[in-house]
Amino acid sequence: MAMETLEQNTIELEKQTDGKKLYSNAQLLNFCLGFFGLQFAWQMRIILSGPVTEGLGASPFIFGLIWLAGPFTGMIVQPIIGAMSDNLNTKFGKRRPFLLIGALLASLALWAFPNSANIVNFFGSSLGQNLPVWSALLFAAITIWVIDGSVNAAQGPYRAMIPDNMPQEQHAIANSFLSFAIGLGSVVAAGTAPLLKWAFDYQMSIPAQFIMASLAFTLATIWTCSTTKELVSKPAQVENPETAENNSGFWNALVGFFKLSPDVSKICIMQLFTWVGVMSMFIFFTQFAIHNVFAVPDLTNATEAIKKSFENAVNQGTNFASISFAIFNLICFVVSLPIGILSSKLGNKNVHAFSLLVMGLAFLAMTFTTNVKIVGLCMAVAGIGWASILALPFAMVSKYIKKGTEGSVMGIFNIFIAGPQVLVCTLLAWFISQCPTLTKDNYHWEYAFIIGAVSLFAAAVFSMMINEKATVTENA
């Protein structure tokens, strides 16, 4: 009798966990270490790409166009890599090869980006020619595309490893652990240079910060690939082969994605507004810190002498942006696990909507001040929303993923993260370039936060419209 009860309990546990073993907290921490390193790449990209490209002559609009690398590679690379990883079968696994290759390529580009002018001058000297002044900016733009494409190639399969290897009941907490790693990685990446300046009066150069990111990304990814095992799942089965012959695999996956549930569309619309809001801050905050908070005029067409005279103020603005992002991600780091716990009790959509509302209010507050302390406080409050954004939408959509389609679904879902960024990189960047100050020596960078706040409020509304109690079947 006792044996029968034990067998029944075992069978019931396997049903609850989809036949997958529950991860311990130590295993979850180990799993997310690669994301800790990956965030070094994103953080340097977010904080320091503006000062580098502006120094090479990029206007706000050109800067926005360069930022298109992120969304375009996200929309193209992640769905393709996701589908490829669903069907890959190697001794090394199906996700890990993409993590490792993406990290190595991104690391090379991270080194090259801040050294674009030196690299172009070196090749120009080797050829005995004086290359055009825009050559360095073009080279920098290319390396940005390589960074973003490579990081996206690693990020999609990484996310897919959660539904691959963990039972559904752990998806929310696993994504919260990734949020935890992103927050911690961002704090370390963004805080290193300001800490060295404060503690030792040493100003870490921008190229040195990119080298730090390159090493962190590579080493952390190698560790994850070496210590994380993958469960093998069969590729998704096509229910109607005749229909499949008339459509591409990606089109089938896209159509099937939206047929899973009406709530999937609501989640995607929520993501669209969310990422318009988030990227409005990510892309333009450093320039806001330099030009609005520290009163540095626009240096796009300035002479080298003028740029030199504002070098100290630019460094102060850049360090302040780094500190602000460190605070932003520190709060994300602190609240990420509590958000995962609260969402399991109060519901993903309720916690997420509240977090988006808080983030939007923080953005609005920043438009009315250039006070260093208040801006830093607003960034801290916004970190609550960031912790939720990094975890709960993925937990919401993961309940609709069919076995064998994890990579494809995560890649398609990323379209609604990357797509909105195109609007920010083009329309918002153009709008800001058309809004100079009365003295014509600066731009209204704070307008980005107003648009971002409105978008976050809209996302919160769509979050509350999601029916989390909807029934999901295996063949939904």
Brief account:
The chain has helices at 2-16, 25-31, 33-55, 60-67, 69-87, 96-112, 116-127, 135-165, 171-200, 206-227, 241-245, 249-259, 262-293, 304-309, 311-346, 348-366, 372-389, 392-398, 406-433, 447-464. The protein is mostly helical.
Structure commentary:
With 476 residues, the chain is an all-alpha fold. The protein has one domain (34-226, 250-464): Up-down Bundle (Growth Hormone, Chain: A), CATH 1.20.1250.20. The relative contact order is 0.15. It contains 20 helices and no strands. The chain has helices at 2-16, 25-31, 33-55, 60-67, 69-87, 96-112, 116-127, 135-165, 171-200, 206-227, 241-245, 249-259, 262-293, 304-309, 311-346, 348-366, 372-389, 392-398, 406-433, 447-464. The chain starts with a helix and ends in a 12-residue tail after the last helix.
Task: Assign the CATH architecture.
Answer: Up-down Bundle
Average pLDDT works out at 81
What fold name stands as the CATH topology?
Answer: Growth Hormone, Chain: A
Return the string of H and E elements: HHHHHHHHHHHHHHHHHHHH
Quick one: CATH class? Mainly Alpha
Helix content: over 70%
CATH-wise, what's the superfamily?
A: MFS general substrate transporter like domains
Query: What is the CA-atom radius of gyration, in angstroms?
Result: 23 Å
Kindly, what is the distance between the CA atoms of the first and last residues, rounded to a whole number of angstroms?
38 Å
Count of the separate structural domains = 1
Output the structural class: mainly alpha
Largest sheet: none
Number of helices: 20
Question: What share of the residues does DSSP label as strand, in percent?
Answer: under 5%
Structure summary, number of beta strands = 0
Low-confidence stretches: 1-16, 238-248, 471-476
Taken from the alpha-carbon principal axes, the silhouette is globular
